[in-house]
Amino acid sequence: MLTFAIRRLVLAIPTLLFISLAIFMVLQLAPGDPLADQPLTIPPEVRAKMREALGVGQPPLVQYWKWLVQIAWVEPKVLIDWLTRESWLLGWLPDTQLYQGELRVLSWQTRSPVMDIVVQRIPQTLWVVGMAYVVGILIALPIGIYSAYRHYSVFDQAGTFITMIGFSIPPFFTGPLLIVIFSVQLGWFPSIYDTTLVVNDWSSFKTQLQQMVMPVMVLALQTTAQISRYMRASMLDNLNQDYVRTARAKGLSEAVVVGVHVLRNSMIPVVTVIALNVPSIFGGAIITENVFKVNGIGQLLITWLFANDLPGVMTLTFIFAFLIVIFNLIADILYGILDPRIRYD
To answer: Is residue 214 within 8 Å of residue 257, measured between CB atoms?
Structure first.
C-alpha cells in the first residue's frame, strides 16, 4: 500500500503539470482585458506600461513558467513559514508581495498575493461547505441503508421521489426559493450571510447557526440525494449475495448481518463517491456563495473571472485540480482498508 501511494504521488506531478498548462492555455484564449475597467482617458503609452507592470505583455509561456515557479516553489515555502510561524527557509514577510526577493503570485486586480486572499476566504467556505457535506453524508447513509433493506416500501418510494427532486433541482433555483420562503415570507433566517460576524457568546453563535441553515440546506440536499442513491444501490447488490445467506444460516442476528457484513462491503463504492465529491462540492459552492453572499472562495473565483484576473483564476482552478488528485488517492487507499481482498502489488 505504501509503495502504491508513493507511486501515485509521483504520477500526480506530471498530471498536475498537464492540467495547469491546459488551464493556462484555455484562459489565454478567453476574451477580456485586465485593464478594461480603467478609464479611457489613460494615454496609450501609460496603458502599455501598466500592462507591462502586470506581466500581460510577456509571451504566454514566460507567464506560465513564472506562475509555475511561484505556485510550486515560492508559495509552499511561504506556507511552511506561516504554519510554523518561523523563518525556517528564506524568511516569512507577512503582507508583502515579495518573499525575500522572490515574487509571489500576485492578483492583477488587487496587486496583493493571491494565496493570502485565498487563505482569508477559505474559513468561510469550509464553514458552509464542510458543514453541508457532513450533514449530507450523515443523512444520506441511513436513508440509503434503510431504503435498501425495506426496498419498495412506502419509505423507499418516498425517499426515491425526494432524492430525485433534490438531485434534479440546481442550487441557483433552490437558493432563491429558500430565501423567498424562509427569509421573505417567514422571516426565520437572514438572506445574506454576514462574514464579519464574530462568534464570542451564545447570541452570536445562534446568529451564526441561523445564517448557515439555508446555504447548508442547499448544498446538503444534492449531497444527500446522490450518496443515498449510491448507498441504496450498493446495499441491494450485496443483500442478495451468497455470503449474506450463509451468515443468516449460521444464526447471526439481522443487525450483525446488515450492519457489519453487508454494510462494510457496500461502503466500498460509496467511499469513492464521497471522496471524489469533496472537490466537486466546492463547484456547487460557487453558485451557493453568490446566492447567499458568502464571502468565500467560490465568490472570489467569480469576481476574478469577471475581472479577467489570470493569476487568481489559475491559482484557484489549480487548487481544485489538486484536491481532485489527492482525493482520488485517498479513495484508492480506503479501498484497500475496507476490502482486504484488494492489494496494490
So the answer is: no
